[in-house]
Amino acid sequence: MPLIPEEPQIHESAQGPRVTPATGRTASTPRPVPGPRSAATPRPGRPGPGPARPAPPTPRPHPASGQPQAARPENRSAPQLQVIPAAADGALDAADEAVDLLLDSGRAPGDILVLTTGEQHPWATHELSFGEAAYWAQHEAGDDVFFAGTAAADRLTSRPVVIVAVNGGDDDTAARALSAAQRRAGALLIVCGDPQRVDAVLGAGV
């Protein structure tokens, strides 16, 4: 007879392990953690930035203007301005780096125009060696990055992005280059040069 009451105790112990999986169910709480992880995965992917861009409408038409330094959205007709600090002997290198960044961000080569205030860019020097007709034919084709000096600014047509490399010349030359660049830049104007000199020229009403 004493064996009979011991058996229900065994059944109670069988119910004990059933409680432990219940505690194991509480361990299912880390399931929401992979949720934010999956949200983090689209950040490096291309679809991630897509939904984030519609919130601010201004950066959508200008992917290259996603750079935080361009901060003049008040005047919609004027291009956004970005100044890249560079010495005169390093302005061309800074301009080349800006071109690479723009192309990496999705800009088409034909969207970019580069103006120099001092010596011609090596690309322009090389292309001009084949004659001005072939040189300007590439400009009219508009399917590649085009480099030109300030003296030729009057012949240039507008492009979405204009880069000015202040690699020499006096203030008048820099002012002419910046003035021409502002008229021809549709979305973004990048100036590679001494920030104080650029500010002085721009402050003069260019």
Would you write up a description of this structure?
It is built from 8 helices and 5 strands. By secondary structure, it is α/β, with parallel strands linked by helices. A 5-stranded parallel β-sheet has the order 1-5-4-2-3. Helix 7 links the parallel strand 4 and strand 5. Helix 7 (171-184) packs across helix 8. The chain is globular, with a radius of gyration of 31 Å. The relative contact order is 0.13.
SSE layout and pairing:
Blueprint: H1 3-26, H2 34-40, H3 49-52, E1 80-85, H4 91-104, E2 112-116, H5 122-128, H6 132-141, E3 146-149, E4 159-165, H7 171-184, E5 185-193, H8 195-203
Parallel strand pairs: 1-5, 2-3, 2-4, 4-5
Helix pairs in contact: 7-8
Write out key terms for the chains shown.
206 residues, five-stranded parallel beta sheet, 43% helix, single chain
Largest sheet: 5 strands, parallel
Instruction: Extract low-pLDDT stretches.
Output: 10-75
Q: Approximately how much beta-strand content do the residues carry?
A: 15-25%
User: What's the overall geometry?
Assistant: globular
Task: Report a brief summary of the structure.
The protein has 206 residues and is an alpha/beta fold. It contains eight helices and five strands, in the order αααβαβααββαβα.
